[in-house]
């Protein structure tokens, strides 16, 4: 049997989404983690994916403890989210978590809808103290572009709105060929001071304007607020010690009129936005 989970790119709302009641737009990317699984007397794992934190066996233990699991399996993982052992930065850990939980449940005839799957995934992540806002997990569970509203981990009042529209907004994601260490960058940002709250409010304002503009295909408003988000992220960097915009990133951003980082910065992808004469489903073109 075969199961797969896609990947994601943050389009807007980076860093702000780390605090509750913040917004981000996350794009679903059709690059996959594949999991082939076959019934077996014991769990056996074969993978080309680096699992340095032992996530796979932690997930197996979690699912067995929380669901009626009678079937075990051989699990064989393959991934499109790496090149020569370099992560693209498309949410490989979130993709791994989602595909593993989906596969074990499928093997045992347990079917969950997108929101139920999201809740199981984040419950596992919270139990194992895995950092993040969970916007990536939501996007991958829903397999759609989404507007995501964050929550605290106790109340779990997350909101997910699917963004399924046609638009003449062109979005390209250009790979820097330099993998970023998001957790390291995030750890250098003070999210509990007055400056971050001002940053967060500005971010939320622009993200919601972009979301509403995409719904009615007002590309000019989208582009205007991409500029504002880019400026806001540069201000965040100036007030912290995180190297969000490296020389490589700054050079790449300068080549596009409307552009910004995706995710935590420091590497991975940058985003370019422009107006096209052609209408298509909202999607992101990856350029390597």
From TrEMBL:
<keyword id="KW-0175">Coiled coil</keyword>
<dbReference type="InterPro" id="IPR014721">
    <property type="entry name" value="Ribsml_uS5_D2-typ_fold_subgr"/>
</dbReference>
<keyword id="KW-0547">Nucleotide-binding</keyword>
<dbReference type="GO" id="GO:0016301">
    <property type="term" value="F:kinase activity"/>
</dbReference>
<keyword id="KW-0808">Transferase</keyword>
<dbReference type="InterPro" id="IPR036554">
    <property type="entry name" value="GHMP_kinase_C_sf"/>
</dbReference>
<keyword id="KW-0418">Kinase</keyword>
<keyword id="KW-0067">ATP-binding</keyword>
<protein>
    <recommendedName>
        <fullName>GHMP kinase N-terminal domain-containing protein</fullName>
    </recommendedName>
</protein>
<dbReference type="GO" id="GO:0005524">
    <property type="term" value="F:ATP binding"/>
</dbReference>
<dbReference type="InterPro" id="IPR006204">
    <property type="entry name" value="GHMP_kinase_N_dom"/>
</dbReference>
<feature type="domain" description="GHMP kinase N-terminal">
    <location>
        <begin position="55"/>
        <end position="143"/>
    </location>
</feature>
<dbReference type="Pfam" id="PF00288">
    <property type="entry name" value="GHMP_kinases_N"/>
</dbReference>
<feature type="coiled-coil region">
    <location>
        <begin position="219"/>
        <end position="246"/>
    </location>
</feature>
<dbReference type="InterPro" id="IPR020568">
    <property type="entry name" value="Ribosomal_Su5_D2-typ_SF"/>
</dbReference>
């Amino acid at each position: 049997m075969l199961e797969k989970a896609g990947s994601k790119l943050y389009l807007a709302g980076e860093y702000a989404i780390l605090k509750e009641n913040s917004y981000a737009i996350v794009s679903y990317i059709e690059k996959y983690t594949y999991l082939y699984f076959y019934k077996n007397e014991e769990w056996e794992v074969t993978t080309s994916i680096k699992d340095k934190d032992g996530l796979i066996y932690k997930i197996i233990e979690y699912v067995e403890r929380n669901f009626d699991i009678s079937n075990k399996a051989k699990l064989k993982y393959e991934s499109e989210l790496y090149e020569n052992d370099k992560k693209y930065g498309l949410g490989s850990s979130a993709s791994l978590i989602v595909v593993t939980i989906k596969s074990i449940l499928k093997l045992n005839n347990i079917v969950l809808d997108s929101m139920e799957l999201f809740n199981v995934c984040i419950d596992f992540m919270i139990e194992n103290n895995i950092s993040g806002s969970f916007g990536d997990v939501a996007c991958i569970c829903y397999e759609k572009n989404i507007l995501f509203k964050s929550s605290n981990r106790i109340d779990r009042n997350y909101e997910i709105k699917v963004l399924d529209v046609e638009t003449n907004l062109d979005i390209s994601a250009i790979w820097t060929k330099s993998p970023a260490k998001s957790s390291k960058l995030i750890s250098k940002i003070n999210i509990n001071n007055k400056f971050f709250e001002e940053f967060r409010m500005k971010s939320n304002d622009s993200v919601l304007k972009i979301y509403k503009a995409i719904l009615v295909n007002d590309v000019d408003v989208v582009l205007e607020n991409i500029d504002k988000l880019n400026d806001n992220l540069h201000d965040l960097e100036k007030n912290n010690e995180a190297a969000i915009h490296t020389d490589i990133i700054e050079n790449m951003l300068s080549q596009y009129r409307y552009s910004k980082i995706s995710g935590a910065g420091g590497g991975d992808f940058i985003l370019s936005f422009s107006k096209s004469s052609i209408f298509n489903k909202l999607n992101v073109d990856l350029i390597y």
